[in-house]
Design a protein that fits this description.
The complex is a heterodimer of chains A (220) and B (229).
Chain A lengths: L2 H18 L1 H22 L5 H21 L7 H10 L2 H30 L7 H28 L4 H27 L4 H30 L2
Chain B lengths: L2 H4 L1 H4 L2 H19 L19 H24 L2 H32 L8 H22 L3 H25 L24 H37 L1
The chains are: A mainly alpha (220), B mainly alpha (229).
């Protein structure tokens, strides 16, 4: 099998495993639903645009940390050995990133719609906002998947993912919040263009770094 | 054997003399030397020699940390990891020093020790990243495993830190002198008197950091050797 073929097969395998055990994906949905409802109760609909945007990304941050925390944990010893003999580490990390990207994009869209239902606001540049959600999901999934790989080698301490991952996410989150805020305020594409370019290059750097560094974790 | 402590440069004395001379010179002329009279900054411009130079030394230590992490991953020599760990610790020391000198200065110049400034946020993030690096190190008992995993994290963190400190502040206005239209020390303002102190100060603090780091690495090696026997 070729390199890409194996990656695609692995993504499908991950999806099938997830689907077989629907418990974890349901838990994820309920987690984000519950956190949105908590913010709804706390803010009582008195919410301005900046708070809306920040809350949305904060909930996304915590939900995605939760979603990705298990991405290496749930692999049993046997499955890991199987991967080890069948795959190169580069294929594994790419497959995990792509699968988590799909998971997070779906999750962020669901979150976005629920957010729109409980706190209806008018987003001027919806296309730009959706693009920033997609780019944010790419960044979150890449960084957190890589850190989850690191944590899985370090006694699988659950708190460690947040401690190690959040500082690495600061640059991404600060740009993405700025970017999506501009989209809410209806800034022209020309204004946001530079931020999107920075965001895309940041994502490229993180994907490249994970791709290059993961083999060192794996070989251990 | 590792390249750093076996290296003759680490054991040579000449650059340590240069460090001492530069720092004595900095401390003397930093307070006595002429500075241009500038609005807002006034005499606090002297903080340039003691605050900005801390960041330079911190950057150098982070660079050493990243380079030796890469070296460790390619060589798997545990002394490369030792250098990486100790330079990470020195980076924390210099970032704390830079933060304190900056906060004291900001308290009198901006009226508050902490403002929502991209450079301050970048610094806070950097300190958190390196704190996380040491938490990760402590979480893994096995020596080789620890070195490898921490090395991977250090390289990842260095790149992110670089983006956060060097790229993002350029996109926003900052309160820092010389940025966002504030008076400051860019190449037109920084006069030759200040350059004469600033450059030796940068060299002096960077060399001091390297010296401290190399001493700590050598102490750790001696401990290891005595424990083995």
């Amino acid at each position: 099998m070729s390199f890409t073929n194996k990656v695609v097969q692995l993504v499908l395998l991950e999806a099938r495993l997830e689907w077989k055990n629907k418990q974890s994906i349901t838990a994820l949905l309920i987690y984000s639903l519950a956190s949105i409802f908590v913010t709804y109760l706390a803010f009582q609909q008195t919410i301005d645009l900046t708070t809306w945007n920040s809350l949305f990304w904060l909930i996304m941050l915590f939900a995605s940390t939760n979603a990705i925390a298990k991405s290496f944990l749930q692999d049993s010893k046997g499955l890991q050995l199987y991967y080890y003999s069948m795959l190169s580490p580069k294929q594994l990390i790419l497959a995990k990133i792509i699968y988590n990207l799909a998971l997070l994009s779906g999750l962020s869209l669901i979150n976005f719609f629920i957010f729109q239902i409980v706190f209806p606001i008018n987003i001027d540049q919806l296309g730009q906002y959706l693009l920033s959600i997609l780019l944010g999901s790419i960044g979150l999934s890449t960084v957190l998947t890589m850190v989850a790989g690191i944590v899985s080698k370090a006694n699988n301490n659950a708190a460690l993912l947040a401690i190690l991952g959040f500082p690495l996410l600061f640059p991404l989150l600060s740009i993405i919040i700025q970017c999506s805020m501009n989209a809410i305020n209806g800034f022209d594409w020309m204004v946001n263009q530079q931020l999107f370019i920075v965001l895309i290059s940041l994502n490229l750097i993180t994907v490249l770094l994970s791709y290059l560094l993961f083999p060192y974790l794996w070989r251990e | 054997m590792d390249s750093f402590t076996k290296n003759k440069i680490a054991r040579a004395w000449w650059w340590k003399i240069i460090a001492i001379i530069c720092l004595v010179y900095t401390c003397y002329y930093g307070f006595i030397g002429n500075v241009p009279a500038m609005v807002v900054l006034h005499e606090t411009i002297r903080n340039l020699y003691f605050h900005v130079t801390m960041w330079m030394a911190m950057m150098l230590m982070m660079l050493i940390n990243a380079i030796y992490s890469i070296k460790y991953l390619s060589s798997l020599n545990k002394y490369d990891d030792l250098v990486a760990e100790e330079s990470g610790k020195m980076a924390m020391v210099f970032s704390a020093a830079g933060l304190i000198t900056g906060m004291v200065w900001a308290n009198y110049t901006w009226g508050a020790p902490w403002t929502n400034d991209p450079q301050l946020n970048g610094t806070a993030a950097t300190i958190l990243m390196y704190a996380a690096y040491f938490i990760l190190r402590n979480a893994i008992p096995d020596e080789n495993k620890k070195a490898k995993i921490a090395g991977v994290y250090a390289i990842f963190a260095f790149v992110m830190m670089f983006v956060f400190i060097m790229v993002i502040p350029k996109m926003y206005n900052s309160l820092h002198p010389g940025k966002g239209g504030n008076p400051g020390f860019n190449k037109y303002d920084l006069d030759s008197d200040m350059r004469m102190v600033f450059y030796p100060a940068v060299i002096g603090w960077c060399l001091l950091g390297t010296w401290l780091m190399s001493l700590k690495v050598r102490i750790r090696r001696i401990k290891e050797i005595t424990e083995e026997n």
